[in-house]
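Whiteboard transcription, Tuesday session. T.W. wrote the structure tokens on the left side:
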């Protein structure tokens, strides 16, 4: 983002603040959208669509050379980013048995947060060779590809989610039949 704000969009430090703020406003709207939901039904599709929307928004952002257009494009990027991360987090916590939840969330967080510096290093090296716009658009296309793969594998994932939740029920865990139906239906 600093490269885009300064070198590509010529906004400097003030521009960086505006771009980051636009992403933050989008993320806040995404969090509020998820907060209106009362169950996990349909969150698998939300993960796929928000990941795809994130990638599409980033592709458009990477090609923009107009500062205010770029700022506007970052609103849906932030929205989709927050929606995808929160939906994934919610689904993982809903499917994992109580006795494993802490370990699974620690692993999830380590993979998500712990791998980010390596991804940033790789992206920085790639941006140095190819330029920031091409690097961002390449990563964005990978997001759209991942979202597409996830969407087409979602029926198989639902079957596994059902097995996890039913196994918890049999073992006397917390998830109810209602939650099982919600996860499996959508």
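and on the right, the sequence the group agreed on:
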């Amino acid at each position: 983002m600093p490269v885009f704000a300064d070198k590509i969009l010529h906004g400097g430090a003030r521009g960086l603040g505006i771009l980051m703020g636009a992403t933050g406003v989008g993320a806040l709207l995404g969090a509020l959208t998820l907060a209106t939901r009362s169950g996990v039904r349909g969150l698998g599709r939300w993960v796929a669509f928000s990941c795809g929307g994130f990638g599409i928004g980033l592709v458009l952002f990477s090609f923009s050379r107009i500062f205010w257009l770029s700022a506007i494009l970052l609103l849906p990027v932030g929205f989709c980013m927050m929606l995808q991360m929160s939906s994934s987090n919610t689904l993982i916590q809903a499917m994992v048995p109580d006795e494993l939840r802490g370990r699974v969330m620690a692993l999830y967080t380590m993979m998500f947060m712990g791998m980010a510096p390596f991804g940033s290093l790789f992206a920085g090296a790639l941006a140095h060779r190819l330029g920031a716009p091409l690097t961002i658009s390449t990563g964005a296309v990978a997001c759209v590809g991942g979202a597409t793969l996830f969407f087409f594998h979602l029926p198989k994932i639902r079957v596994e989610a059902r097995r996890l939740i039913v196994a918890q029920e049999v073992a006397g865990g917390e998830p109810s039949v209602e939650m099982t139906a919600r996860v499996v239906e959508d």
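Someone added at the bottom: The CA atoms of residues 34 and 119 lie 27 Å apart.
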